[in-house]
Amino acid sequence: MIRAIVTDIEGTTSDIRFVHQVLFPYARERLGEFIRSHANDAEVAAPLAALRAEIAQPDADNELLITTLYRFMDEDRKSTALKALQGIIWRSGYQNGDFQGHLYPEVAEQLAAWQQQGLKLFVYSSGSVEAQKLLFGYSVAGDLQPLFSGYFDTHVGGQA
Description:
The protein is mainly alpha-helical. Helices cover 53% and strands 8% of the residues. It contains six helices and three strands.
């Protein structure tokens, strides 16, 4: 008996083009200035510290980190630190109405149907939990976060 459904985002609930043509460019455009302005904020300092550990350079300055993050973007590296920072930047885009989370037309109705059948719904994606919640919270179908029982990202391991 199925008791839960775990869904991905890119290509499953949402068009991968939304991520590559809207979200990634939005974060890339703002990344450098964002880090320069917010590096000391606790929410930003934590992923920057994780990035320093990831690249084994505990004394790396912000400019080296910015360069590294741009390289990671170019390589499409699934860096947890990069994903966290992108999610923080995307938050302002969603909140400002710069974009809404894309969903395929049938997704919201199907998720609601599964939940009404008593199934627990979860998301696992290489995007940060923050980014997942934003996409579903500011989706074209409205706030779908109440449908989900939990979210998982690269903190629990990579996708197979």
